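Worked problem 6 (solution included).
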Amino acid sequence: MPTRFLLTRSYNKAAALIIVLAFVVLLTGLALAYFTRSTSERQLAHSSHNDTSSDLLARSALDIVVGDFRQEIVNGSTPTSVSGTTIYVPANATNMIPQQSGSVAGVANLIRRSIRSDPLSGNPGMPSRGSAVNSQDNPSVNGRYINSTRWNAHYLAPKKFTNTTDSLPIDAFTNATPDWVIVTRAGPVPFGSWDAALADASPTNTSYAIGRYAYAVYDEGGLLDLNVAGFPPPATPIPEYVKDVGRKGVSAWADLTALTPTPTPGGTPFTYKIVGFRNYATTGQNNVSNWVYSWRTSPNISNFINYFLGADIGQPKIGINRDFGSVNPVTSSDSPPRTDQSFITRSELINFFNNGSLNINWLQCLGSFSREKNLPTLPLTPAWPSTTASLVSCDWTSPTTRNVEVS
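Solution. The predicted structure is:
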């Protein structure tokens, strides 16, 4: 066989080998890219699955807690049918408010927390189903737990140290953080000790643990809405102040100086600070810094009273709506101009206290919303367009007409 022919065959084989190796490299790259992408997608899918499962568990836990409170209303009431609607009337005065369970000394607003061996039995309050495992003192296998500082992120429990910005509560609450409620396939079930069935994932095992939750419930119904509550005490008595202060049912006239959170704040009166900040434009502030407000004079306080209660008969009461949609125009020479402020969420309220050199323990008594309207209890009509009404006295021997404050 000629030498030239042999060389040609060798060149062809070499070229074929190179082409095959190139295809192998390409296929290997494609396979590697596929498996890499599949692994990433699997991790993302697994993470999304866990997030969804956690969200469903949390929502279910919330539904269970709220459902227990509703069941407590049913258990402690007498159902009455009125025009086809069932109304639950409390069987006694005690049942008009939620039963307390897991209360902590010094934490006035706490009404319910998940605790082991809950004394509530369903008559009428429903037990929490808490197990003998604590959310703070008994970390999970991967070391996760919820400490008391995180439990008090809302500052509804008194702080241990008022000169810090963290939310570490008093020792009484630190030693009484909520217990875990173990959720099995059959629902939340209390356990007094470890049960091996909790880790048995057999399809037929209804005691297999699928998650856990813990909770603490606070009553915010009695908190004062800091968007409204509090009034500026004048340096000297003025007619508007003497006439209007102390009105029944008007949140603006709540005396914040009467609050005594634990421990009691000191220093510059709190009312002076909050009213000057919140009603900056209303009280006619001008280029204020370092919380030094100078508004304790008749014109400023008159503006404040008119803002909440209306000026003359028939005048709109600007500040009675929660959204404060009608804001007083800015008349100060501040640059940039400043107007009134409102707290939309509790987080804003917390940031305000942390950044304003105010005692954070006031938040035990204050909130950012209220169930009570800043309105007189007497409905206003064209005949009585103002809160000042002329009524006839009930002295039948000598009937007279006198002006009284209706609120």
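Discussion: Helices lie at 3-75, 148-151, 171-174, 239-244, 270-278, 298-309, 346-355.
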